[in-house]
């Protein structure tokens, strides 16, 4: 009997200890969950002056900037002021600085309008006027003056440039001009503070062209996602005189829809990604969309930090600015070599990058004498490019993450200036952390 009592007593104490441990554990877990929930609702500190430089992104940015110098000689622009005939030019393979063929100039005007061209140029000039506002006020004023003129022309004579100039449709066909009008109006509002531009973007034109509630990909052909992020800053920062503007609310909710589509753990995240995590939309120039998306994510993260916005909600999940920045870094890192091929798609960066870039100037030796057609021997050569197109961002991988390094593979191996603009923007966002400017005026 005595032994049984002792055994039973020990078992009772053991059960009591186990129950007590479970109760304590439950309390600790509940407290931790409550604290974590409180921290989720607490915004991260506003970044102060630029923080420590991330050398990887700084080095890549320095390289990416060089491609613009290379392209100064290539006076072809199929999407804007058209120089040359795209069909004839594609029948030639020669260094652009040595071209002697006839290169006609095509322009948009009242007779042959092209809304996308005029509105996109207006947006570029308006945004550039902000860059030069303090350092060169006269130039800034000139840019802004012409931005207004171009926008007025684009709005007064609405017509697609690829319909009026059909020879460009094969290369850069526009799917609509409404997004460019909103893009231009949004930048003009930021540059001038003139409420009429904001009313233009948030009123009937917004209803017609902005695709509110339908997230789209940011690209050279579709500016809606960029406009949504740009205008969301006004409601995030509580800009003067914009409270109660329902259009702005639609832009912000649409911008958050774009972000929710990018974050891998979001319920509405796009499933269109490579095994290595790259957002993947198109065989042609596959890197355009992920780099553009990453740039917008980094920008929106900065807006959230500066405005002390703790989180965005995607379904029943919430995400912090750091989650957006993590996504942006994942896309940048993939481009710079953290991918199954262990190859950088930014020419000149890292130990391994494309050697057969589809680029006339890079493929023909500097001392070679070629005409229009005999230069094709350099296109077909099996030797790597004699000149490195430093800073060029090539088209990128296929969905199965293979890359065919061949000059004839323009689908994957061709660098573009609009790709360069995107990677420069993304890398600039990731080099360091700092708060976003709340107002441009």
TrEMBL record:
It holds the Pfam family Glyco_hydro_9. The chain crosses the membrane at residues 12-31. InterPro entries: 6-hairpin_glycosidase_sf, 6hp_glycosidase-like_sf, Glyco_hydro_9, Glyco_hydro_9_His_AS. Its EC number is 3.2.1.4. One of its GO terms (biological process) is cellulose catabolic process. One of its GO terms (molecular function) is cellulase activity. Belongs to the glycosyl hydrolase 9 (cellulase E) family. This is Endoglucanase. It comes from Gossypium australe.
